[in-house]
Specification:
The structure is a single chain. It is built from 2 helices and 8 strands, in the order ββββββββαα. With about 150 residues, the protein is α+β, with helices and mostly antiparallel strands. The chain has one domain. A hairpin with a 4-residue loop joins strand 1 and strand 2. The protein is elongated and about 75 Å long. The structure holds zinc ion (2 copies). The site of one zinc ion (ZN) has 7 residues, from loops.
Length: about 150
């Protein structure tokens, strides 16, 4: 699956870590050098849409995430059919298993930022500079000229 940074560029997953049976944390970093945003996404199994054909028992159904791949509880790699963005930070990921026919939904949520995007920091700094009084701006200029 493709993971996007908030700046719109593709993000790379450096590693994934299982928090418990159902939730996995993905460590992502933006591929755009000017951005440099690194963050954690939470991935987890939400619910089953349709049970596997030959599954009559109340066997525990689930799925897990390894890197950017989703694996069905039968061990096969599941297909991602679509991603439904519920908000900018939360999405439902619809998956199906080609092997057993299990169709299910995973949730993807933005957990937290590890190091902020330079683009955001830059925009924030510019906004601050624009909002200060001319005298503060002058002393800021003097401060900056020392670097
Ligand atoms: Zn970015
Ligand atoms: Zn399966």
């Amino acid at each position: 699956m493709r993971i996007d940074c908030q700046c719109g560029s593709k993000a790379l997953v450096s590693r994934s870590e299982c928090d418990d049976d159902s939730t996995t944390s993905l460590f992502c970093s933006c591929s755009k050098p000017e951005c440099g945003h690194s963050f954690i996404l939470s991935f987890g199994f939400k619910h089953t849409l349709s049970r596997p054909q030959d599954c009559n028992t109340e066997a525990r159904l689930g799925a897990s995430v390894k890197g950017t791949r989703v694996y069905c509880s039968c061990g096969e790699r599941a297909h991602i059919n679509k991603t439904n963005n519920l908000s900018t930070n939360v999405a439902d990921v619809y998956c199906s298993c080609p092997s057993c026919g299990h169709r299910f939904v995973m949730f993807r949520a933005f957990s937290h930022t590890l190091s902020p995007s330079a683009l955001t920091t830059e925009a924030l700094t510019m906004a601050i500079i624009r909002s200060v009084t001319p005298s503060v701006r002058r002393s800021l200029q003097q401060q900056l000229s020392l670097f």
